[in-house]
Specification:
Helix content: 25-40%
Strand order of the largest sheet: 5-6-7-3-8-9
Largest sheet: 6 strands, mixed
Shape: globular
Structural class: alpha/beta
Oligomer: single chain
């Protein structure tokens, strides 16, 4: 088990401007965690720092005592705009399994199972880049699913999708959660936080200003910043 994730005095600056102020967090296994905040709050940068895609200006990220590099293949991340390789949907997943060191004889069957899990088996031989936005996002989730990650980071995975595609993606995310994968998701959508989250970490201008169970956060915010955000985002969608 790679959790708990411990973040100590983490900061990130660009051109002398602090994107992430020094912060400390501990994220445990189990309930899904929503990193909530307005656009520009630093959610995506924080996710990339935790995942090991960015080097912090200061501070540390450790996984049960290990560095991000030592657990890279036991965590996965899905972005708002997934990158699709110029090959079929199936081959996209097979390639990810190859990079992860899965035996060649097992890759195709494992990839097909992942496509079935997200409802894309009929599109296995279609070019990934001609799939709809929602289908591409489900393919990105299937790529992650095939790797059986202990932790799945989701960076606003439905921000550019219509309501129907959003419902499909949320169904897949719930299935990940039910399978035992720890979900850590960034979003600015309060309705989505309520539907998918167990706890909220509220980020404001690069600072963690509040952490609470999702229902308590939505009904009884403890800070003025969170209260203003909730009021401004109503009605929840």
């Amino acid at each position: 088990m790679i959790l708990p994730l411990r973040i100590r005095d983490l900061s990130f600056c660009v051109g002398g401007r602090a994107i992430i102020e020094p912060l400390s967090l501990e994220i445990e296994a189990g309930p899904s965690t929503i990193i909530l905040g307005a656009n520009g709050a630093g959610k995506s940068v924080l996710m990339r720092l935790i995942h090991g895609l960015l080097a912090p200006t200061s501070g540390t990220v450790s996984w049960n005592g290990g560095a991000p590099e030592s657990v890279r293949r036991r965590q996965a991340m899905v972005f708002q705009r997934p990158v699709m390789l110029r090959r079929s949907a199936l081959a996209n997943i097979v390639y990810a399994l190859k990079i992860a060191g899965v035996a060649a004889a097992e890759r195709e069957a494992q990839a097909m199972q992942a496509l079935e899990e997200v409802g894309l088996a009929p599109a296995a031989q279609r070019a990934a880049r001609v799939l709809s936005g929602g289908e591409q996002q489900r393919l990105a989730l299937a790529r992650a699913w095939a790797l059986h990650p202990e932790v799945l980071f989701l960076d606003e995975p439905t921000a550019s999708l219509d309501p129907s595609a959003t419902r499909e993606i949320e169904t897949v995310i719930r299935a990940f959660d039910a399978s035992g994968t720890k979900i850590v998701m960034a979003t600015h959508n309060l309705g989505q936080a309520r539907r998918l989250g167990d706890e909220v970490i509220y980020l404001h201008q690069g600072r963690v200003v509040e952490r609470a169970p999702v229902e308590k956060f939505l009904s009884q915010p403890a800070t003025a910043e969170a209260a203003a955000f909730i009021k401004g985002e109503l009605p929840w969608v």
